[in-house]
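2024-03-11 09:14:02 DEBUG pipeline.ingest accepted 1 chain
2024-03-11 09:14:02 DEBUG pipeline.ingest length=83
2024-03-11 09:14:03 DEBUG pipeline.predict start
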Amino acid sequence: MCLDTGIVGLKPTSFKQVVQDPKWQEAMTEEYNALLTNDTWELVPPQSGHNLVGCKWVYRVKFNSDGSVERYKARLVALGNHQ
């Protein structure tokens, strides 16, 4: 069974949409807090001569087995192709 037919309106297509929706804001806050709690990364000033690795937000809607929305999930991922 394909659930993609009903999620077109649920998945954001731009960051502007995300910042206007409290569900996605909460998902991003949860991800950011998890990164800080787990000491996953540390923000440091850039040094000359080093490549910077960027990042982007990836959004997913997680579903229950009955097709209802379980939660909104946001992940901050590194753009490894820019290393």
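2024-03-11 09:14:41 DEBUG pipeline.report The helical segments are 15-19, 22-37.
2024-03-11 09:14:41 DEBUG pipeline.predict end
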